[in-house]
Amino acid sequence: MDDFLSDIYTILFAKWILLQEVPDFETKVNEDYTEIHFYNKHADIEIVFNPLNIIEFKATNTQSGETEYYLHFQMKTLNHTMKLFKELTHYMKHIGESPTIKILLCCSGGLTTSYFAMKMNEASKLMSLPYVTEASGYNNLYYVAQDYDVVLLAPQISYLHAKACDILKDKIVLNVPPEVFAKYDVKAIFTLVKESLEIKKNQSDQKIPLPVMLDVEIKHKTLALSIFRNKQSIHVAYRVYDKNQEILLDNEVIKPIVNLQDICDIIDIARLHYPRIRYIGIATPGIIDDGYVSSTSLVGWETPERLEDVLTERYHLPVCICNDVNAAAVGYYSSQDQVSSLAFLFQPIHALSGAGIIVDNCLLHGMHNLVGEVQFLPLDLTEDKMTLSMSPEGCIEVVSRTLVSIISLLSPEELVLYCDFIPHVLPLYEEMATLIPKKYIPPITKVDNMQEYILLGTMILSTTQN
């Protein structure tokens, strides 16, 4: 599409939006019509028209301050743009119909908190507060808490507060004061929750880029994308690196469903800002077998053609699609200069694990690119892997046996672990020592930000494999 038609379509789209009825939301427009807001007490939906006909959709939870939906794209066709707006309005309907803050009240068994949770829900309705509260026993806390914003611990389990904070790093975890719990003082609880939400809203989450310790030659600008699931949304983080590994562009898209067109929109935006991008790398969960992708996070990736070929033909640039844990292994390896062999294990919550393996300075792939698919290991476990991955204790059982299997086969110099349910490696090390002599266990490193390693590794793989 030429610039003139793009300008016209963008103006028509802005006027079309203002004619749409969005139930339960009020509308506000700035003077030059470059910003349109739909808002209510639960959410602020912002539509911004930027230079070069780049349009942004952003949905912010007004209670938590979190961005729950973010998308930006350049106007190509009215049909495509209207379709994206309809996706946004569907999300707006969902956020407008339900309370935006979910509270989990936890005690040892769940019985003593059920009545308190009922009182809190009654008060929320009377006071028109956007809170919904449910009760749970401690045994299910860590898995259940993934769907909640705030976790309240009853006095009888307040001694577990530090452990809960370690494991539930992205949640607000609070102890309920004994006098508040004894009196069922709902007003005091809501005050505590509100103050904690305000503190979290004002905290900044600054990322420090990883250093590249190894001599990696990057000749041109590179676009790296990483696709991952978080709660009910898919996140696509992306960066543009220059030849000195400096980050020129750092952003992400957040949507309930991500398809191939969304990936193309991101590539188009990045190339619009940096036309001299020469390499594109995409890291995704799943098995990548000779360019064919099997991913549980994306819609439309299982194409009859090699996906790398489809994107290479579209952009006339080399495209590298890699497994996300393999990329993390390469990223970690490149950020240090101490070892030449390592295994990077990712154990997600209520999902199967995967590993990236580096031996003698080389990432192992194997036939069908199956190296590291440790989900297929026939481990001797007390329960199935999916059930065990729902608790910290279960994760230690699965991870310990998986790592011992890797040691037995490859004996790497270092083990690297990303697992939210295992905040410290000592219990893991002790469990592994019951399965294999201690002298054979290499150093175990726990990382807390896998995304940094994935993006760095994707950048390196896309430039060195093409």
From TrEMBL:
Residue span, PTS EIIB type-3 domain: 100-206
Keywords: Kinase, Phosphoprotein, Phosphotransferase system, Sugar transport, Transferase, Transport
InterPro entries registered for this protein in UniProt: ATPase_NBD, PTS_EIIB-like_sf, PTS_EIIB_2/3, PTS_EIIB_3, ROK
SUPFAM superfamilies linked to this entry: Actin-like ATPase domain, PTS system IIB component-like
Coiled coil region boundaries: none
Pfam families: PTS_IIB, ROK
Alphabetized Gene3D superfamilies for the sequence: 3.30.420.40, 3.40.50.2300
Keyword 4Fe-4S found: no
Entry-linked PROSITE patterns: PTS_EIIB_TYPE_3
Modified residues (Phosphocysteine): C107
The keyword Cell wall biogenesis/degradation is assigned to this record: no
Family: Belongs to the ROK (NagC/XylR) family.
Record protein name field: ROK family protein
Organism: Catenibacterium faecis
